[in-house]
Write a structure and sequence with these properties.
Elements lengths: L1 H26 L13 H30 L8 H28 L2 H30 L3 H29 L6 H12 L5 E12 L2 E10 L5 H18 L3 E9 L16
Parallel strand pairs: 2-3
Antiparallel strand pairs: 1-2
Length: 268
């Protein structure tokens, strides 16, 4: 049952990777009249569907393992089973590493979900190998049950994480806190006549990150100079944070001061 569990997981890998490919192609399409923010959420939809299928599969594996154990079904393993599982571990490791690196580089939620799924394969396939060895040499079928349940648990756990991230993006969850902190650090280093910022909002769609906020500029500054500062800030942020789509609204600072760098209320 442990080997069958791992085999079903590998079949799902192929199906889900194919679906992710289609989702990434859709997400890469440029914005159009009906989708003015682009098609990035296609990746999040794919991740959500992927997680639900994996959760269902994990539940079925758990049910079948318990059912076989209760009915005392005979389990037979061979050297071929062990060889296939070892190869599966090697290939899963290679694929997980590649997908993880590309996912981090591009920020693709679909690729990150795929990388997480393949990483779970490492644990599930390793568990299957241990089950084969222990069951083969001891004849105790409980090991097969135990590691089948472990595989199911790993699948469901990894799928719940994929589901949470995908659902969060569909619900316009804000960007990760480390990126928010990076934005704050960059914006806060802007020179005078910058006088602060507020009303920052953010969300994620696929690999794209959308941010908007109000940039406070000394009210004595000319509008064209204020726009130049906002344009410069947008360029800096886009260079520092990948796949960032940012909108900055310029707002005159209303705090009382003598309209100089030294007396600026916000910079003290």
């Amino acid at each position: 049952m442990a080997v069958l569990s791992s085999g079903l997981d590998s079949m799902l890998d192929i199906l889900m990777s194919g679906m992710n490919l289609l989702a990434i192609r859709e997400a890469a399409k440029p914005a159009d009249y009906r989708h003015q923010y682009g098609h990035g959420k296609a990746e999040n939809m794919a991740a959500l569907v992927q997680s639900l299928v994996i959760i269902f599969t994990g539940g079925m594996i758990f049910y079948k393992a318990i059912d076989k154990f209760i009915h005392k079904e005979t389990i037979h393993y061979s050297g071929l089973d062990l060889g296939v599982m070892i190869l599966s571990v090697i290939f899963s490791m290679m694929i997980a590493i590649v997908l993880g690196k590309v996912g981090e580089k591009t920020g693709s939620s679909a690729l990150k979900a795929d990388a997480l799924h393949y990483s779970s394969d490492l644990y599930s396939n390793t568990a299957a190998i241990v089950a084969i060895i222990l069951t083969f040499y001891t004849g105790i079928t409980f090991f097969d049950l135990f590691f089948s349940v472990v595989v199911a648990g790993i699948l469901i756990y990894s799928a719940l994480k994929i589901f949470r991230d995908g659902f969060g993006s569909l619900m316009d969850a804000s960007i990760p806190s480390n990126l928010e902190q990076k934005l704050h650090e960059i914006v806060s280093t802007m020179p005078y006549p910058y006088a602060g910022y507020h009303k920052m909002r953010s969300r994620v769609a696929g690999s794209r990150k959308y941010v908007d906020f109000h940039l406070l500029i000394c009210r004595d500054e000319k509008i064209d100079e204020a726009h130049k500062m906002a344009d410069k800030l947008e360029t800096i942020l886009a260079e520092e944070i990948k796949n960032l789509d940012i909108v900055i609204h310029i707002e005159p600072c209303s705090n009382p001061c003598e309209l100089t760098k030294e007396t600026c209320f916000m910079r003290k």
